[in-house]
Amino acid sequence: MWGYFLTFDYMKKIIFALLLVFTTTVSSQITFTSIPSEKQLFGRDLNTNYGQIDISGYINIGDNYDLDFSNWSAGEPNNAPAPEDYAEIVNSYGMWNDANGSDGKKSYIEYEGLIQSLGNLTYLGQFNGHSYFKNEQDLTWQEAKIAAENLGGYLASFHTAEENSAVSSFGFFRGWIGLYHDTNSANYSEPSGGWKWVSPTSSETTAYSEIKVEFLRNGTIVNTYNNTLTYNQDIADFNFQIPILAELAKYRVKIYVKDSDQQFLLIQDIDDLVAGDVFIVQGQSNAAAVMYNGSSGAYQNDYLRVYSGGYTGSSSVLSDDNWYYAQGDGNENSGGNAGQWGLALAKMIKDQLNVPVAIFNGAHGGQPISFFDRPSDYASSTNSNYGRIISQA
Fold this sequence. Notes:
By secondary structure, the protein is mostly beta strands. It has six helices and 22 strands.
């Protein structure tokens, strides 16, 4: 069967509200739990013709357990096979992998102070006033954590890329570090939201008093939104809900915080945002519509978008968190690929309705209908075609 099908009726479109929710830490103080990405398209409400941009997060002036930087291996964390809620170093570059905490592994131990002996651990080296050791025992993550604490240390917690690199250079081995997935965190999501260190960075002193968002249309400020920050136990939450009109125009958000000198500091600048309609293309080779004879470049347009890609593997989907201008000359494993047919359809709809369009093409040639069925774990796993498409929406 070499056909295609769409998951919408053209006159009764199913519009997805695409609000990418993930955790981004700008510094040890400012964490975004929802923030747009460059080139993102927001699904519009057909009754109002507006989408909505959500910007939310918190500022922490106390001890911070969240990630100050990230060093995940490509495609990680992926929570596959689940559950994978604890982190290990997996190569000499200090890259991280999420793993099952019940596995037995050696572990990296950190001690605050300059010593060269700690119990029966193997000495590794020193960095920035801290000493590092190797626990040679194969322990579960929890067992390794307890063993380290019983000796006055803790599982190594890397708050800078320099520290991570230094410890990895002392003598690489595959082992546990003090990074875990806090499933009770307000920021928890699979697979990447809510990761924390067992040992925090020290308390910060800057208490920002205000956070501001400038909203621009085609380079001109059209609105400004302000939140006065109120701290409760060293945490101040912020939340903005910004309507964005579905039209052939590009919007931009610039986010500032006000410091103790009453100066606004720019912390995020995200451009090329649009609102419009979202369509899913699904099926076999005719729907995949890879290039066989001639380019579809004539159909490309800045107002046609794709999130991630119609990848055939889980790790590729999880490692590509980007929005693209849609293109049609790639294949199922090309980022931003809508397929030639999907790109032509998107251009036709944009020209008729005068709104931006996003295409999510999950087609996969030569597969039986059962390949596209919805499995029971579609909402939490990207191991199925259906699950990969849902993860994009």
